[in-house]
Amino acid sequence: MSIDPHVTIDFFINGTPCTAYDGETVIQAARRAGVSIPHFCWHPNLSVPGNCRICMVEVESDNGDPWFDIGCNMPVTAGMRVLTESDTVKKLRRDTMQFITLNHPVDCGICNKSGECLLQDYHYEHNGRPSLSIDRKNHATKFYPLSDRIMLDNERCIMCTRCVRFTHEVSKTHALGAVHRGDHSLIRPAENADFNEDVYSDNVIDICPVGALLSRENLDHARVWYTKATPSVCPGCARGCSIDVWHRKPEWALKALDPSLNARIERVTPRENAEVNGPWICNKGRDLARIWERPRATMALVGGTPAALDEAVERASQLMAEAARGVVLVSSWGSNEELASLHEVLTGRLASRFTARVKPDHVPQPGELLEDDILIMADKNPNRRAALALFPALEGEVAAAVADADLVLVWGEGVTDADLPAGARVVRLGSYQYETALRADVFLPISIQTERDGHYTNAQGVVTAFSSCFAPKGDVVHAEGLFQALAGNRKALHRVLAGAVS
Ligand code: SF4
Ligand code: SF4
Ligand code: FES
Questions:
Q1: What global pTM score does this model have?
Q2: What is the domain partition of the chain in residue ranges?
Q3: Which residues line ligand 1 (CB under 6 A)?
């Protein structure tokens, strides 16, 4: 049933007057009113199967004869008086929890979901009693590989079917289904589909209300309460999905074990953003550690040899001062703030001698899905729109754009040595270890997204912030200040050097 926010209905929740939109169910209206009704199978972005029954509410009637029904499938009607905390509702919830946990293992101590598991939370909130059953639990497959990325623990599954509905309604791969009946029911890959082909598959890990669906990549990495989320933006394509980057809390830093684990990405999950990605991201977003945790360049180089950062910046600045026909190849992975800083120097101190072109830092990789009608976009760069608002696009080959240059400043990735004119000076600003750094006149290591705050503007023009979660290492500096220093601003140079971690 569709919801019409222009037509409102007055009703009551626990005696308090509330307003629902026409077409809203009790659980939806209650949520907007700040009243929580427990739910397993219901998910705000999926259809309503009404199979778990934990959302049962009471509706008072004028004849004193109340009725009970599931709040996730009950439309609000005018004057309706809903009770979510009556004694009978509480008893029904307790009984439902007993039923749902009938065959559930007491696995919390070893379960990856522990700490963010609805079943665990609801057990304490709505049940709290030991199992009343005198029968042995029905054991099911403990670990069943649903795909190369996802492991299923059938004993923990409560058959809410969220995962199945996700593949039918969101990713549309129809890759999962349920086989058998009753307490023998199992989630299984569909016979005519391959869950490996579902590029949104890992969303089922988040929406599974229990610890039945597990990321094989992140299995047993860290307890969730040892980690925290930093808001960020996926740079994997021009959609710029909002994400949370999870990493170890400083107060739980490992000392005896490998300390590098303290600055590792434990996992990436969607951060709900109605304007951009809703509650979903694609699997490339989950795998950002593979992009961000590539071997980093942390040392400044002059002529391919390690140099002190101040010497390297001075040398680059000198080369830029000498250039008559400089070209800057602008990164489409730079933040709005970095782009603005570059624009300031290119329209100021360097205006008469430098031009700029926006290049793609990343292009689609072999086997990568180019685009779809869900989230994935063909442009594999997060901030090309903002860059193009300030600088012209690189049209055609890089080599043609820089053919006449006597100095090329390459910011970011995607430009080989073969693209650059043989006689030109080359200054590179990069974050990862490439051999091209050894052949540049000057190479300066710059921070990546997880080491600085900033904003990206996605292909639709939505601006989203990202925050730093790790400190830069070695001589790594932020490009935003570096551009000013390279243009000869001495104050900026001192600020850059003061901010460098050595
Ligand atoms: S695996 Fe999780 S999401 Fe899928 S049906 Fe079972 S409990 Fe629900
Ligand atoms: S759709 Fe694009 S921005 Fe969103 S998670 Fe996937 S790669 Fe990242
Ligand atoms: S949440 Fe209503 S029946 Fe499952």
A1: 0.95
A2: 4-100, 108-215, 228-292, 301-499
A3: 157-163, 187, 208-210, 212-213
